Structure formats: C-alpha cells, structure tokens
Amino acid sequence: DTAVSQTPKYLVTQMGNDKSIKCEQNLGHDTMYWYKQDSKKFLKIMFSYNNKELIINETVPNRFSPKSPDKAHLNLHINSLELGDSAVYFCASSQRGAENGEQYFGPGTRLTVT
Amino acid sequence: LAKTTQPISMDSYEGQEVNITCSHNNIATNDYITWYQQFPSQGPRFIIQGYKTKVTNEVASLFIPADRKSSTLSLPRVSLSDTAVYYCLVVFSGSARQLTFGSGTQLTVLP
Lengths: 114, 111
What we know:
The structure holds 2 protein chains of 2 kinds. By secondary structure, chain A is mostly beta strands. In chain A, 0% of the residues lie in helices and 55% in strands. Chain A has strands at residues 4-7, 10-13, 19-25, 31-37, 43-50, 53-57, 64-70, 73-78, 87-94, 104-105, 109-113. In chain A, strands 2, 4, 5, 6, 9, 10 and 11 form a 7-stranded mixed β-sheet that branches. In chain A, strands 1-3-8-7 form a 4-stranded antiparallel β-sheet, with no helix packed on it. By secondary structure, chain B is an all-beta fold. Chain B is 0% helix and 53% strand. Chain B is built from no helices and 11 strands. Chain B has strands at residues 4-5, 9-13, 18-24, 33-38, 45-50, 53-56, 61-64, 70-75, 84-92, 98-101, 105-110. In chain B, a hairpin with a 5-residue loop joins β7 and β8. Chains A and B meet through β5 and β10 of A and β5, β9 and β10 of B.
C-alpha cells in the first residue's frame, strides 16, 4: 500500500495552461504539505494544511491554489503556468506538525512547462 | 531571516563514519532539527529528529551542541547504498514561523 500517492507522476504542458496535481495519504495523518524542488534540488515549502485548514502559506504566486476536500487529500491547482513553474512537486503528510513529526513524502510530480 | 547551511558535497569510503553538519541561526530552544535522505527520482525519507544533545536510532545519530547553532548527522559505517542527498530541516518558531530545508549535501560513498 502506497502511503502518500501523487498523480500524475509526469506532467508536460504549455505556458498559460491550467493544471492540477492530486495527492492522497492513507496514513490517517492530520497535516499535509506541498513542496517545490527546483533544478538545483532546493526544497521549498509552499503550503501546509492541518485538518483541512491552511496553516502555512509561504510566498507563493496566487496562481497556485491548494484545495483540501478532506484531511486525506490535498490537491494543488496551478493557473496560467509559466516556464519558471517547471520543477518537481512533492506532497507530504505527518501526524503532527513538521517541527516535531516525521513527514512522509510522495514520489513527486515532475512538471515541465514548455 | 531563518537560514540553514550545509556542505554541497562529501565523499567517503565504504565502512567509514560520515558526519554532515548543518548550520542554523536564530534557532529557539525547542525548535527541532530533522534530517532527510533523498535518492534520485524519489521523495525525501525521514532519518532522525531531535532538539537537544544527542539522539540515536538504528541508522544514525544526531548531535546538537549546547549553543544549538549547528547540528551534525552521523552515519556509522556507510555503504554504497547510502549514496544520496541529505537535507536538514528546521522549523523556526520565532516571530514568523518558518519551515526551512538546507540546500542538501550530496554524499557519495566509494568502494
């Protein structure tokens, strides 16, 4: 059983399009996250939700909008895609907050914007 | 501004102990330091977490000195399969809560 799953694994699209990445965790965790990993492998937090409530919202363009229909899902919708959005996006979950809990990461979604 | 700093890369030989240091300024007394391991094309994987002195589990140890301005991940007797990128993560609980990953250290274990 996959603990944290993401779909799709690869996403190739053109500038200006709108796309979504889905994330699901079957661990019963309360907190979920979205991270962006750029070509230099830097990992940066984008959003964090606890029980469907937004608790971390870093400086991210408002073209990015997270949506949590229930505490097992945290989807990421991106409007008007730009070249600079090309990266690997990771979803993660933890029972407690990131400061004192182990995060479980998904396999990542490689987004390529052309 | 919260910041974490790691060496870009390290090489080691099989069977040796490897120590990777993360420097973190403005860390509060109860701020945790967590280390993750990442293999190519995979998500990061938890290794160890602590907030003071020393923590040990079955795969690694984490040393945090009294001034808490740095922490060291220690991997005993590395093998070729330990070749990966290692990240430290600090959640700074100051005036503006910040979750900050280090830039990652590429560890290459040589035969």
